[in-house]
Amino acid sequence: MSELSKETIVSEMMETNEKNPVGHALKMLTDFSVETKRGTVSGKAGDYIVKRNNGTVSVLKSSMFFRKYRVLR
Protein backbone atom coordinates (compact mmCIF):
# COMPACT_ATOMS: atom_id res chain seq x y z
CA MET A 1 0.00 0.00 0.00
CA SER A 2 1.23 3.50 -0.84
CA GLU A 3 2.08 6.05 1.80
CA LEU A 4 -0.56 8.75 2.18
CA SER A 5 -0.38 12.27 3.43
CA LYS A 6 -2.99 13.80 5.69
CA GLU A 7 -6.58 13.57 4.47
CA THR A 8 -8.22 16.90 3.77
CA ILE A 9 -11.81 18.05 3.31
CA VAL A 10 -12.32 20.13 0.18
CA SER A 11 -14.91 22.40 -1.40
CA GLU A 12 -15.20 23.40 -5.03
CA MET A 13 -13.91 26.82 -5.97
CA MET A 14 -16.90 29.04 -6.68
CA GLU A 15 -17.47 32.66 -7.50
CA THR A 16 -19.01 33.08 -4.05
CA ASN A 17 -17.25 32.38 -0.78
CA GLU A 18 -19.43 29.37 0.02
CA LYS A 19 -17.60 26.62 1.89
CA ASN A 20 -19.77 23.57 1.30
CA PRO A 21 -17.71 20.39 1.67
CA VAL A 22 -17.87 18.25 -1.47
CA GLY A 23 -15.57 15.44 -0.41
CA HIS A 24 -12.20 14.30 0.83
CA ALA A 25 -8.79 14.45 -0.79
CA LEU A 26 -5.51 12.62 -0.27
CA LYS A 27 -2.17 13.89 -1.57
CA MET A 28 -0.20 10.82 -2.55
CA LEU A 29 3.48 10.53 -1.64
CA THR A 30 4.28 7.74 -4.14
CA ASP A 31 3.07 6.63 -7.57
CA PHE A 32 -0.26 4.80 -7.31
CA SER A 33 -3.33 3.42 -9.07
CA VAL A 34 -6.96 3.58 -7.98
CA GLU A 35 -10.18 1.95 -9.17
CA THR A 36 -12.84 4.34 -10.48
CA LYS A 37 -16.12 3.85 -12.31
CA ARG A 38 -14.16 4.38 -15.55
CA GLY A 39 -11.55 1.76 -14.69
CA THR A 40 -8.09 1.86 -13.14
CA VAL A 41 -6.46 5.30 -13.10
CA SER A 42 -2.76 5.80 -12.35
CA GLY A 43 -1.19 8.79 -10.69
CA LYS A 44 2.22 10.07 -9.69
CA ALA A 45 3.60 11.20 -6.34
CA GLY A 46 2.14 14.64 -5.58
CA ASP A 47 -1.18 13.95 -7.32
CA TYR A 48 -4.46 13.96 -5.39
CA ILE A 49 -7.17 11.34 -5.07
CA VAL A 50 -10.52 13.09 -4.56
CA LYS A 51 -13.58 11.21 -3.33
CA ARG A 52 -16.68 13.35 -3.62
CA ASN A 53 -19.61 12.96 -1.24
CA ASN A 54 -21.59 11.23 -4.02
CA GLY A 55 -18.95 8.47 -4.20
CA THR A 56 -17.21 9.59 -7.39
CA VAL A 57 -13.42 9.08 -7.27
CA SER A 58 -10.98 11.02 -9.43
CA VAL A 59 -7.25 11.65 -9.72
CA LEU A 60 -5.97 15.20 -10.22
CA LYS A 61 -2.54 16.70 -10.76
CA SER A 62 -1.62 19.13 -7.98
CA SER A 63 -1.92 22.19 -10.22
CA MET A 64 -5.43 21.21 -11.32
CA PHE A 65 -6.46 20.29 -7.77
CA PHE A 66 -5.75 23.79 -6.47
CA ARG A 67 -7.58 25.40 -9.42
CA LYS A 68 -10.70 23.35 -8.76
CA TYR A 69 -10.79 22.87 -4.98
CA ARG A 70 -10.22 24.81 -1.79
CA VAL A 71 -8.97 22.99 1.33
CA LEU A 72 -11.30 23.49 4.28
CA ARG A 73 -9.28 21.55 6.84
Automatic annotation (TrEMBL):
It comes from the Archaea. This is Uncharacterized protein. It comes from Methanohalophilus euhalobius.
